[in-house]
């Protein structure tokens, strides 16, 4: 069983990482500003699910594939970029789908929002490599199943991440509710969300650091 000192140290490191702005924080903030706090929370739920899936892969030892087969990393990276560009294209062609007066049928469903958050995280191979770089420092084979230790650390990380991003979602959603509730704000918040998706895609394509 992992000792409390290790868990506290990992929690502190996780908090420091989570409060640092990154692609997931930008994504949930943009979605919250564009479509409200509930949409931001659902996006975060999708991101969390994708991140936990990466943890399961690491626990099974499959993340080593990115180190053993460099082309596997590039394939997943380009797939992720293509998916984000597709999301950006969908957002830009949606016209006033986020406008306050839009009909329910035009609004992006909560399932679609969850799916976008999940796949944007899942198709980012750097998340798997992040786990691979961070977690081994806190693992001890003499203290039980390594796979179980990985999942415990992953859950702690996601709880902290969700808590930090909940504050971001609340603040970003407040910007939407306090702004003029006409179509002008809706249109510009939608454009911002599309630019976020496009920027994340470019980051995956051009940032070759691992």
Descriptive notes:
By secondary structure, the chain is mostly helical. It has one domain (24-206). Helix content is 76%, strand content 0%. α2 (23-35) runs antiparallel to α9 and α3 (37-59) packs antiparallel against α8. It is globular, with a radius of gyration of 18 Å. The chain starts with a helix and ends with a helix.
* Low-confidence runs of at least 5 consecutive residues: 96-106
Largest sheet: none
Count of DSSP strands = 0
Outline:
globular
Report the sheet-strand fraction.
under 5%
Instruction: Please tell me the total number of domains.
Output: 1
Indicate the radius of gyration in whole angstroms: 18 Å
Total number of helical segments? 9
From the helix content, strand content and strand pairing, which structural class follows?
mainly alpha
Which key features would you list for this structure?
210 residues; mainly alpha; 76% helix; 0% strand
Task: Give the structure's gist in a few sentences.
The chain is mainly alpha-helical. It has helices spanning 4-18, 23-35, 37-59, 64-68, 70-92, 110-122, 125-134, 146-178, 183-206.
Topology:
Layout: H1 4-18, H2 23-35, H3 37-59, H4 64-68, H5 70-92, H6 110-122, H7 125-134, H8 146-178, H9 183-206
Helix pairs in contact: 1-8, 2-3, 2-8, 2-9, 3-6, 3-7, 3-8, 5-6, 5-9
């Amino acid at each position: 069983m992992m000792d409390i000192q290790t868990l506290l140290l990992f929690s502190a490191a996780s908090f420091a990482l989570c409060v640092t702005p990154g692609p997931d924080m930008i994504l949930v903030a943009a979605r919250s500003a564009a479509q409200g706090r509930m949409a931001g929370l659902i996006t975060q739920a999708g991101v969390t699910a994708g991140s936990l899936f990466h943890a399961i892969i690491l626990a099974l030892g499959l993340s080593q594939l990115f180190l053993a087969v460099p082309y596997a990393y590039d394939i997943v990276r380009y797939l992720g970029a293509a998916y984000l560009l597709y999301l950006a294209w969908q957002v830009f062609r949606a016209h006033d789908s986020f406008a306050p007066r839009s009909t329910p049928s035009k609004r992006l469903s909560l399932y679609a929002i969850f799916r976008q958050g999940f796949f944007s995280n899942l198709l980012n191979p750097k998340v798997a490599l992040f786990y691979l770089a961070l977690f081994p420092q806190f693992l001890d084979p003499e203290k039980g199943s390594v796979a179980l230790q990985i999942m415990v650390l992953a859950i702690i990380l996601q709880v902290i991440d969700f808590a930090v991003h909940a504050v971001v979602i609340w603040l970003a959603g407040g910007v939407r509710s306090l702004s003029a509730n006409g179509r002008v704000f809706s249109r510009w918040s939608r454009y911002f969300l599309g630019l976020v998706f496009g920027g994340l895609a470019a980051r995956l394509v051009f940032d070759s650091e691992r």
